[in-house]
Protein: Metalloprotease TIKI
Amino acid sequence: MSPWSWFLLPTLCLLPTSAAPQRGALASANCELKPQQSELNSFLWTIKRDPPSYFFGTIHVPYTRVWDFVPDNSKEAFQQSGVVYFELDLTNPYTISALARCQMLPPGENLQDVLPRDIYCRLKRHLEYVKLMMPSWMTADQRGKGLYADYLFNAIVGNWERKRPIWIMLMVNSLTEVVVKSRGVPVLDLYLAQEAERLRKQTGAMEKVEEQCHPLNGLNFSQVIFALNQTLLQQESLRAGRLQIPYTTEDLIKHYNCGDLSSVIFSHDSSQVPNFINATLPPQERVTAQEIDSYFRQELLYKRNERMGKRVKALLEEFPDKGFFFAFGAGHFMGNNTVLDVLRREGYEALPMNTVTF
Ligand SMILES: *[C@@H]1O[C@H](CO)[C@@H](O)[C@H](O)[C@H]1NC(C)=O
Ligand SMILES: *[C@@H]1O[C@H](CO)[C@@H](O)[C@H](O)[C@H]1NC(C)=O
Ligand SMILES: *[C@@H]1O[C@H](CO)[C@@H](O)[C@H](O)[C@H]1NC(C)=O
Ligand SMILES: *[C@@H]1O[C@H](CO)[C@@H](O)[C@H](O)[C@H]1NC(C)=O
Structure:
C-alpha cells in the first residue's frame, strides 16, 4: 500500500481504533526459518545511557496486521519511555494541511496543462474505473463504520487536477482494492502516536513537513512522467487481468512479522516511493528507474538519516534525564548511512535488541 495513505485521507485517521486484529494475524507469522516468536528479531535498538533510550522501526501498514507480532520488549520500551518522537506529528492538523499544500501545483496551473495528453487521458480513465469499482472494493466492516464509497473516493481523489504529478503517481499507486480495503485502520506509526497521546506521553516530531515533501517535488519532469507512466501501466495491466495483484504489502508484512532485517524491502516503505526497477524494462528505461531509485535513496533516506541522527543527539544531550523512544520508518535503521550509524559516529553505543535480551 502507499505509505502516504495515512495522509491522503487524514480524516479517516480519526476513526475509532478499536478494530480487532484480523483473525489471520493471530495465527503464527509462518516464518520458515525461525518458527518461535521468541527467536524473532525485534525492530528495536537501544542507546546506552541512563535512562536508556530506544529506536523502533515502524512500517506503513494497518497496525492490526502487525501489532500481535511486535515483541514484548518493544512494547515495554514504549511503555517505559516518557518522551516519544516520530518523523512527523501525525496527530497535528497543521501537519496534514501543510502536506496537502505541498502537493499542489503552483497557482494557476492544472494537471491537464502539465501532463502529456496521452498520460492525462489514461489517468482520467483510470480514475473513472476506480470510482466505479470503489463500492465493490469496500468491506462490510468499513460500511459498518459509516464509510461510504463516494466519500472515500472524494477524500482520496478530490482536487486531483490541481496536484503535482508525483503526488498523482503516489495516489494512483494507493488506489487499489487491497489498499482501499485497509482504509479506516491506522497504520502502525499513527497507532503509536495515538497510543502515546492516550498514555499522556510527551511527543515530538523529528522533521518539518517540508523536509519530507520537498525532496519528492524535486524529481525532474521526465523522471516524474516515467514514474507515472509505469504506475498507470501497472494498473492498466491489473485492470485487464494481465497482471496478478502485486503482493508488495503482504511481503512487507511478512518480513516485518518474521523479524527479517533485510534492508531492501523496507527502504521503499520508508522512502515512501514504490520500486520501479523491473527486470522486463528495456535498458534505457531501466537506467531511468535506477536513477529515480538512487535519487530517492539519497534524498529520502541518507540525507534525512543524517539530519534526524544529529537532532536525536541534540535531544539526548539537552535532556539527559529523559528516556526517549524514537519511532521512525524501519528503513531508517537498515542498509547504509542509517540513523544508528550517525549516532555511533557521534560516540554513542546503539545496540540491536533481540527479543530475549530485554
Ligand atoms: C532528469 O534527470 C536525469 C538524471 O539526472 C537526466 O538524465 C535528464 O536529462 C533530466 N531531464 C530533464 C528534463 O531535466
Ligand atoms: C509509457 O511507457 C511505455 C512502455 O514503456 C512507452 O512505450 C510509452 O511511450 C510511454 N509513454 C509516455 C508518455 O512516456
Ligand atoms: C514491468 O515493466 C513492463 C514494461 O513497462 C510492464 O509491462 C510490466 O507490467 C511491469 N511489471 C510489473 C510487475 O510492474
Ligand atoms: C551500501 O554501500 C555499499 C558500498 O558502497 C554498496 O555496495 C551497497 O550496494 C549499498 N547498499 C545499499 C542497500 O544501498
Notes: Strands lie at 41-47, 53-58, 83-86, 202-205, 324-329, 350-354. The chain has 17 helices and six strands. The chain has one domain: 40-352. The first strand starts at residue 41 and ends at 47.
